[in-house]
């Protein structure tokens, strides 16, 4: 455990970021656009019902150790979440049966109120290119789910390097 | 599908609309791709998956020509379309399904509760949907299942319902001028909102001056300005004609009023059209016109009041003048004859 645990949001590939069932006004992008845990007034809200499907694509392979989700309204905060990795073409139908789910987590009210880190089964999240968070239900069975901030902790995999920051050198 | 109520027949009109749709979508963004599927026959069938190649679409349309028949299964077709959309290579593309409906809804498609649930599911999965109803696809009465479907699937005004009644217009033209393709043609969809109904009613003929104001705002502005100038000119002419003729005493107010009425009635049809096309602008026009009319009336009446004092003298002198003129012309004639 010598490796330092860092927030993986800085490795997010924002251009590929998607969220299903988000409202137009309160999008997922708004709360992770800064590539750090959101502290502003923006939040993510679900649209047609309480479920949400967040896709967090990383620009390099990462290991994920824990996840933190925070919501200012506990009633609307996610309760049951399912985690899937490396399935870019995911939609709600794929998750109904729960076949591809790596881990299912039941969040407590304290977890979401304070944005507490929830440890994952580390061995299952060793080579992650994209993490999908399926919010199944919320704490108060509200129609809308609200997430104010999300953070993912772990470490970038050694040997892979972030090339997205490289710029093409102009030929003379 | 072979009915001739749409030119040249329903299937041809629809094929034409499909190619127009394809071309507009692909042209609007180089990353856009379009697939093609049929809903009836033995069952829904995907003929072309995502492509930018018009040839593939054309050949698919051609091959589907021999398969006309059966019953369109809309719910299943939408599910199949969703699957086809899911396996697109570029995940950045937003998904959209455009459904052409020319036959009455049947089976599950006619079950409103089921359709609403399906619409909610589409919305949840971030799939936009457009319905183009024509022929028997236009549901009778005020209540429309397809419209309800679109309302339930709508998020951020990205889904549309368009009913195209039969007529001499081309199906593809109307789709081109509808909100369905507005976004792909660089026109803000809000601008198309009011016009869509007009377009559906009578094609391009429904627009003021026969030009779609949203397509060429500068032209529309120029046309409107020239119309206003002409109105102003006519009003000025009415005033001018009102002033000299006021010497004709009691008959003048009626004359001026008639002139003013004439200007307002000639300009009435254009403002009526403008109301259909762009409500706010039309209202301003009307105010201007009314103000002008009032002014014209007031001026002519005011002049009458002033004139009233001198009426007697002027009338006499005028009669004298006329007599003198007749005499002179008579003399002239005599001289010529001599």
From TrEMBL, chain A:
GO terms for cellular component: cytoplasm. Belongs to the PITHD1 family. It comes from Trametes coccinea (strain BRFM310). SUPFAM superfamilies: Galactose-binding domain-like. Residues 1-172 form the PITH domain. This is DUF1000-domain-containing protein. InterPro entries: Galactose-bd-like_sf, PITH1-like, PITH_dom, PITH_dom_sf.
UniProtKB/TrEMBL annotation, chain B:
One of its GO terms (cellular component) is nucleus. It holds the Pfam family VWA_2. Residues 1-180 form the VWFA domain. GO terms for biological process: proteasome-mediated ubiquitin-dependent protein catabolic process. PANTHER family: 26S PROTEASOME NON-ATPASE REGULATORY SUBUNIT 4 (PTHR10223:SF0). Belongs to the proteasome subunit S5A family. This is VWFA domain-containing protein.
């Amino acid at each position: 455990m010598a490796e330092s645990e860092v927030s993986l949001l800085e490795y997010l590939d924002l251009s590929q970021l998607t969220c299903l069932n988000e409202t137009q006004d309160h999008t997922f992008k708004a709360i992770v656009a800064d590539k750090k845990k959101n502290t502003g007034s923006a939040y993510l809200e679900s649209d047609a019902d309480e479920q949400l499907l967040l896709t967090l694509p990383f620009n390099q392979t990462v290991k994920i150790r824990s996840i933190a989700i925070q919501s200012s309204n506990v009633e609307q905060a996610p309760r049951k979440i399912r985690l899937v990795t490396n399935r870019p073409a995911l939609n709600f139908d794929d998750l109904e049966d729960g076949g591809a789910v790596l881990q299912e987590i039941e969040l407590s009210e304290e977890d979401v109120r304070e944005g507490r880190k929830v440890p994952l089964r580390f061995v299952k999240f060793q080579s992650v290119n994209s993490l999908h968070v399926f919010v199944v239900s919320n704490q108060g069975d509200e129609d809308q789910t609200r997430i104010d901030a999300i953070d993912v902790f772990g470490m970038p995999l050694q040997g892979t390097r972030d090339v997205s920051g490289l710029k093409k050198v102009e030929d003379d | 599908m072979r009915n001739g109520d749409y030119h040249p027949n329903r299937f041809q009109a629809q094929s034409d609309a499909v190619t127009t749709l394809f071309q507009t979508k692909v042209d609007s963004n180089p990353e856009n791709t379009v697939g093609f599927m049929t809903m009836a026959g033995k069952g829904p069938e995907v003929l072309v998956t995502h492509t930018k190649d018009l040839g593939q679409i054309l050949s698919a349309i051609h091959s589907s020509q021999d398969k006309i028949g059966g019953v369109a299964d809309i719910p299943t077709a939408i599910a199949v379309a969703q699957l086809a959309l899911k396996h697109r290579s570029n995940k950045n593309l937003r998904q959209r399904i455009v459904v052409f409906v020319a036959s009455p809804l049947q089976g599950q498609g006619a079950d409103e509760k089921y359709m609403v649930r399906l619409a909610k599911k589409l919305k949840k999965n971030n799939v936009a949907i457009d319905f183009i109803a024509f022929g028997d696809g236009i549901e009778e009465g005020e209540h429309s299942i397809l419209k309800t479907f679109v309302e339930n699937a709508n998020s951020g005004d990205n889904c549309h319902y368009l009913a195209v009644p039969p007529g001499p217009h081309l199906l593809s033209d109307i789709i081109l001028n509808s909100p369905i393709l507005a976004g792909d043609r660089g026109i803000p969809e809000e601008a198309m909102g009011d016009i869509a109904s007009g377009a559906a009613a009578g094609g391009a003929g429904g627009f003021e001056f026969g030009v779609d104001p949203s397509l060429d705002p500068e032209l529309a502005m120029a046309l409107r300005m020239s119309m206003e100038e002409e109105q102003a000119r006519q009003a000025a002419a009415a005033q001018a004609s009102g002033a000299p003729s006021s010497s004709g005493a009691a008959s003048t107010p009626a004359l001026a009023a008639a002139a003013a009425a004439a200007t307002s009635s000639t300009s009435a049809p254009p403002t009526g059209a403008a109301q259909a096309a762009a409500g706010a602008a039309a209202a301003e026009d009307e105010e201007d016109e009314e103000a002008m009319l009032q002014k014209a009336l007031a001026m002519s009446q005011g002049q009458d009041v002033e004139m009233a004092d001198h009426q007697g003298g002027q009338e006499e002198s005028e009669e004298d003048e006329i007599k003198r003129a007749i005499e002179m012309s008579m003399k002239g004639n005599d001289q010529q004859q001599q």
